[in-house]
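Q: How would the structure tokens look for this protein?
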Amino acid sequence: MLVQVSRDLQQQLVLLHVSAEQPAMQFPEIWLRDNCRCPKCYMKQTRSRLPHGWNYLDPTVRLQEISWCAEQQTLQIEWSDDHQSSYPISWLQERDFSQANRARYLRAYYRPEQRHWSGQQYELIRREFQYQELLESDEALLQWLHHLAVYGLALVKQAPLEEDVLRKLCNRVGFMRRTTYGDEWSVRAQPGASNYAYLAAPLPLHTDMPYFEYKPGVTLLHTLQQSDSPGGWNLLTDAFHVADLLRQRYPSSFHVLSQTPVDWADIGSDKELSFHNIWRAPVINLDANGRYVRINHSIPQRDSHFSVPADQVRPWYEAMAVFIRLANEQACTFKTAPGDVLTFDNLRMVHGRTGYDDTDHNVRHILGAFVDWDIAYSRWRVLKNALGHYK
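A: Here is the predicted structure in token form.
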């Protein structure tokens, strides 16, 4: 490989030219100094910088001399602080600051690019996975996690009608997320229920647990018994698609729902634990680049406290009415069968169900659990690497 080295002095960039057909790879000089690979600066076994420089970072250090070692295929640099660094070409190629390479890394290593979908597109994005195969095959597990990350919804079929199904599945990913309702929770009609989900009445579209700052990421619902009544149908909507519609058609409503903090709360007790959870955040949560990171919506868990100026209240209700209308219009409907495990992105999807008749001979019983996205994405990356999907 013939590599030519040059510098952009104005931008303080090192440029590597591998071929005339490809644009030069670019690397900020200060970043190269910070990421020196020598044993004094980097520890291989921890894959991290050594701590001696943690309390001192000198941005005045400048590149003095630069060269390319063709024999070792490394970039050699001497710095103004008398330090010397060497960078392998393969390492540099992975970290090229070009826009195309940064986008490739974010898709391949950070998180796969999400694809938003309407209710009419449900059959196109719908995919089923076999429970036993997920327990036995790493490739199947990877494909399930990937589909769940991209589309926010996947159905697992043929699970045993046993109470350890969700734990086994969660353990294949990492571990369950414990909440104030325990590791797992049971959803069925209960007299004197303290949670709206434990009623046989219709359950409007919502996200689970918006009152947590660190909201559970992946919801898993295992159907043990299904009501034979006409009701009990699942409702799901890709709320990121709803946010797209708001952004395009109702920009003022989008602005209100992405900027107005809402008080979400859950006050009560479950078993022997009493709790009083509160979190304040908008319905549509955005990152620094304006991309969606989380949807909060649950009418029962929206507190009567609304800690905003009074003149912001009516505009919020008017915007929220648009959101709810669009979410219901975009919902897909289906009915799970015993042995199905419905899995979906709780940061993205709003879900609910139609009402159903509940009697001693007509019971709907669902077991639920959570896995955090940090754990799921970690497993996704480990599997991709182990199965050679990064190559």
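The chain has a mean pLDDT of 93.

The chain has two domains: 4-110, 119-386.

Upvote if useful.
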